[in-house]
Amino acid sequence: MRVLSRVAWAWLVQLLLLQQLAGASHVVYDSLELEASAAAAEGVPPSIVNSQLRTGYHFQPPKNWINDPNAPMYYKGWYHLFYQYNPKGAVWGNIVWAHSVSRDLINWVALKPAIEPSIKADKYGCWSGSATMMADGTPVIMYTGVNRPDVNYQVQNVALPRNRSDPLLREWVKPGHNPVIVPEGGINATQFRDPTTAWRGADGHWRLLVGSLAGQSRGVAYVYRSKDFRRWTRASQPLHSAPTGMWECPDFYPVTADGRREGVDTSAVVDDDVSAAARVKYVLKNSLDLRRYDYYTVGTYDRKAERYVPDNPTGDDHHLRYDYGNFYASKTFYDPAKRRRILWGWANESDTAADDVAKGWAGIQAIPRKVWLDPSGKQLLQWPIEEVERLRGKKPVTLKDRVVKPGEHVEVTGIQTAQADVEVSFEVASLEAAERLDPAMAYDAQRLCSARGADARGGVGPFGLWVLASAGLEEKTAVFFRVFRAARGGGGGGKPVVLMCTDPTKSSRNPNLYQPTFAGFVDTDITNGKISLRSLIDRSVVESFGAGGRACILSRVYPSLAIGKNAHVYVFNNGKAEIKVSQLTAWEMKKPLMNGA
């Protein structure tokens, strides 16, 4: 039965490609032709336009610019992803809502753009938004439109499926009463965008958030209420605000607080369901325009007051982040098919705009992640969706109980590792050699990693993986842990402090690349000496998950030597303490169907 279903899926994919690619926005160009034209670009290194740096299993269209994921949903057996897309080039501009569908979140087929500038309320831009499932199962999209070119005036619009019986939702219509929300009452009209998925209260009213900026520096999530998605009224006060700058792409959703990994539908908990309310917490996420990172807090939603209160009173100063690397404008959705919440996030390029124009594409989406609340209730856990494991090759390679001495590195051989999935469990025999954490860096993981990178010898660590490494190690991207003794007066009960870091400073010989170290502190107990790491390696992206998803880092890299068959993976230890690889398993990853590419 499983074989038949795969055959049926393959035939359906072929049909969709024949029907859609001729008219779709994702025009497929011959890769050799693209490389030939790109190589002529002045000042662009040949390796940048090498097709082997184009990701193999991360989501992207065949060409051009993409950014924010929009309105992900599951509808009538299909997963849908809309996203900001420039059909005319590899830089931002001319934005439309591109649309792709999938049965499994891994193999994707591109359809025609779903939303393009076509009415007065979005004539100058169709920006980000979200989808909501109505009580009768009909999906509704709310999105930001720009209706004045001179002042970037932002309004919120609604779009409905033309034919709700079409599982692919190929056509969307914009009612004549758009815009449905306008920036009144002193709201900054140039900083007013990205409506969230709506949730329904016991009073029958829908609520959603719109991100904004109040004054010069206060990020705000305004609450709007409606019975019919046509007439919306702003609540008397914001759901929440903080002095962090503009809040883009807000997201607000419930998570179970009883240790289960199941997701919760955004509208599942209503005002009068006291027992259900006691079993959930809420997550408020905002993309900070000033910092270009996604921050979130866990807290309580007061339904009567329409207010959100973070559990951590200092949360607005030291936010948690979904990802401590290149990950922005994220959006979650509830997947009713598997009762889980899934997170999408955009990863921009780290090369130059000239490089992007030369290669003809820019931007990817991170691997979809399942998210749930850690049993401690303090943070979210994230893990690649289980479907990605279908791309693993049949014959993994393993290391078991391998001791790695100080200054030593061990190569992982037997598979091609430019496109791979590596899971490893480490054990540290003793933490006695751990360095003392500098109090000045106790809240600045990225600064700490920059000062104490992968090649800086330490006590316990740095230890981890060198990925996309050349044979002579001229190029390498390090993903590693470093353990510190807690700083005096630094809190945390004196337990060891674990730093997770990605160091791409030696990832490429190409010039003009943005190569920052990315890092986060991992809230885990390493007193038993054990910690795990998983890295998804995909040609020009390294997406890593530390300690079971307690810290995640995505980094974009562009090797000039470690490409294709010339890419290697090593386990390394630059600390004074021995480490043991208790188990390492690595799989070569296959390429899925990716929007016709």
From TrEMBL:
InterPro entries associated with the record:
ConA-like_dom_sf, Fructan_Metab_Enzymes, Glyco_hydro_32, Glyco_hydro_32_AS, Glyco_hydro_32_C, Glyco_hydro_32_N, Glyco_hydro_beta-prop_sf
The residues the entry assigns to the signal sequence are 1-24
* Primary location: secreted
User: Which segments constitute the Glycosyl hydrolase family 32 N-terminal domain?
Assistant: 58-384
UniProt-annotated location(s): Secreted, Cell wall
Q: Which UniProt keywords apply?
A: Cell wall, Glycoprotein, Glycosidase, Hydrolase, Secreted, Signal
**What EC number(s) is this enzyme filed under?**
3.2.1.26
Question: Can you give the residue ranges of the Glycosyl hydrolase family 32 C-terminal domain?
Answer: 387-588
Per its record, the protein catalyses:
Hydrolysis of terminal non-reducing beta-D-fructofuranoside residues in beta-D-fructofuranosides
Q: Does the keyword tRNA-binding apply?
A: no
Q: Which GO terms describe its molecular function?
A: beta-fructofuranosidase activity
Q: Which GO terms describe its biological process?
A: carbohydrate metabolic process
* Annotated family: Belongs to the glycosyl hydrolase 32 family.
Q: Can you name this protein? A: beta-fructofuranosidase
What organism does this protein naturally occur in?
Oryza meyeriana var. granulata
